[in-house]
Write the structure tokens for this entry.
Amino acid sequence: MKRIFSLSVVVVLAFLSALPADACTSAIFTGKSTPDGRPLLWKHRDTGELNNRIEFFPSGNGRKYSFIGLVNSPVQDGEVWTGTNEVGFSIMNTASYNLQSEAADFEDQEGVVMYQALASCKTLKDFEKLLDKMKKPRGVEANFGVIDAEGGAAYYEVNNTEWRKIDVNDPKIAPEGFLVYTNHSYTGRKDEGMGYVRYNTANEIIHKGWIRGEEFTPQWIFNNLSRSYYNSLLGIDLNRNPELAPDGWFVDQDFIPRRSTSASIVVKGVKPGENPDLTIMWTILGYPPCGIAVPLFVAMGADQPEYMLKGSGKGNNCQMCDWALERRAKVFPLRRGNGKNYFNVAEAFRCMSLTEWREEWVVKNMEIMMESMYGQGSLNAAACQKFYQDFNPFLNQFPAE
């Protein structure tokens, strides 16, 4: 009887109005909450543009610093949706829907703000100065998550005319050293905005992990959040109880990974005093259950893995994203009527099994390499290039499976 009731609730949810396309899930973990004392910045991106890629932006042409960032494949320049720069400043955002007055104009300029921040900011203070000097109205209604190489970690709730800092290092705000944001702001209009179920889901998963003494790493985040089919409102976890999906199907509603998910990124920063070249941007392009996490470094410059860049895939898109989208099409194969609201759970799990052993290889070998580079205090570009070359055979098998 309990199973029938749960499924009934899900069917009702399927007929609710769709969430806005830009509806991301995110978290900041300070060094206080991680096993090695290095901060983590997570963004799980939901958007209407599923073709995403990585781009390297060199310094010059109005850019003080070089940086790498997640961009929409059709966009050439001027917008970034998560990124990190050569001095260890990293930024991401989630759209907020309770900060702006209802009559306010909104221009969706968050990508522009993050591009400008990566190009010009070294510290949280620099970002605050950037916000202050921006022409108003700013054209944003967002929560910006930021970490820097000096130990700074904060969210900024920003609208057209104001901004407020939520310091993740403040024990009164984040006593355990982490904070979750989705699509509402803490200082915004009460009980308005979006993403409350996803917020509760992510918060619950992280707190349970904290209580159990689990180590928060990029891979922990990907496996426990980006690829989680837990719904905190319904109290169901398809990862642990796949039998709740009759014939392998379930409604795509309020899970962290959704049909609108285009990427999931965890930036692992450095400790104060460490070389910011050692900042890693772990990047899954595409629907996370179908994609592979790849570590990227700004210090590699234009020599980023080719399959993460524009021009390596079909139609001049990104090859890694194309591969993930091909798999995603099997997870969301229905097109007629309300079919798009359902996903094939069994296929999602199959995709994760194809990803798991490859990602384990990536993590194991990257950890060995990073231990050496942390000891040396600098990035070994030759070792990184060899790492990417050694990974190529694993990728060459991937598209055919």
Q: What stands out?
A: The chain has one domain: 2-400. Confidence is low (pLDDT under 50) at residues 1-19. Residues 345-376 form the longest helix (32 residues). The helical segments are 2-14, 110-120, 124-133, 196-211, 218-226, 319-331, 345-376, 381-397.
